Automatic annotation (TrEMBL):
Family label: Belongs to the transketolase family.
InterPro entries hit by this protein: THDP-binding, Transketolase_CS, Transketolase_N
Annotated ranges, domain Transketolase N-terminal: 9-264
Protein known as: Transketolase
Top-level taxonomic group: Bacteria
Coiled-coil parts of chain: none
The keyword Transferase is annotated on this UniProt entry: yes
Sorted UniProt keywords: Metal-binding, Thiamine pyrophosphate, Transferase
Organism: Bariatricus massiliensis
Cofactor(s) essential for the protein: thiamine diphosphate
Keyword DNA repair: no
Length: 278
């Protein structure tokens, strides 16, 4: 995909996120929207995955460590063809396979069940070690919340990843600076994030997480890095694309009303129309 196609796809992913959370009447839109460009790049450009064969042995693995942003994950998977986009409207409904957090047993394309913050990265490190032991060349990607890195288990996993020189592993930190209780630097500051990962023997790349040129360059640099894992710290905007959700901690875990849903979709339609004129 070229950059314009990625931008258009990411906008569709954002529409899907808003629709899914609105249909569920619950969920986590803020952090799903902030990571929409990352999800889009991973599943449409970076990762070796096949919707027709979601469990193929040589596929790249993805672990959503901040599992509550499943609406973004599901939307990218649906747009990529792993399951029907229409099914996103069943999010969190009784009987739906699209639970509030990723479920590897029932959702095509999901490699690891997650949701308890801090635990997903450990699973990703285990997958990367497994690939090394087996001589497999698949790569492992894990998306981590910037509030989530307040969890000690993240750093235990990072210490092992750095020590094991897992150059097949990429941590992506969605640095939108907001968690459920407010700005991360006011709740329990993890800054400077880059220096911390460097201390754990990671190759660190800082980017604008909404700029596809920077996203593309970062993942290419990660793939070229040998002898150490990579941490891509993506500076993002929580609620990106929806005017009244942007940079608002209150939209961490809340569904829009009917009127808010219409406003949000109108915002995203405008973005889509502007992209179509490029």
């Amino acid at each position: 995909m070229n950059k314009l196609e990625l931008m258009k796809t990411a906008n569709e992913v954002r529409k899907d996120i808003v629709t899914a959370v609105y249909s569920a009447k619950s969920g986590h839109p803020g952090g799903s929207l902030s990571a929409a460009d990352i999800y889009t790049y991973l599943f449409f450009e970076e990762m070796n995955v096949d919707p027709a064969e979601p469990k193929k042995a040589d596929r790249d693995r993805f672990v959503l460590s901040k599992g509550h942003t499943a609406p973004g994950y599901y939307s990218a998977l649906a747009e990529r063809g792993f399951f029907p986009v229409e099914d996103l409207k069943t999010l969190r409904h009784v009987g739906s396979y699209l639970q509030g957090h990723p479920d590897m047993k029932h959702i095509p394309g999901v490699d690891m069940s997650s949701g308890s913050l801090g635990q997903g990265v450990s699973a990703a490190v285990g997958m990367a070690i497994s690939a090394k032991l087996s001589g497999d060349d698949y790569r492992v990607y894990t998306l981590v919340g910037d509030g989530e890195i307040q969890e000690g288990q993240v750093w235990e996993a990072a210490m092992l990843a750095g020590f094991q020189k897992l150059d097949n592993l990429v941590f992506i930190i969605d640095n939108n600076n907001l968690q459920i209780d407010g700005p991360i630097d006011e709740v329990n500051s993890p800054y400077p994030i880059d220096k911390k990962f460097e201390a754990f023997n990671f190759h660190v790349i800082n980017i604008d997480g909404h700029n596809f040129d920077e996203i593309d360059a970062a993942f290419k640099e990660a793939k070229a890095t040998k002898g150490m894992p990579t941490a891509i710290i993506a500076k993002t905007v929580k609620g990106k694309g929806v005017s009244f959700m942007e940079n608002q901690a209150g939209w961490h875990g809340k569904a829009p009303s009917e009127e808010e849903y219409k406003t949000a979709m109108a915002d995203l339609e405008k973005v889509g129309e502007a992209l179509c004129q490029k």
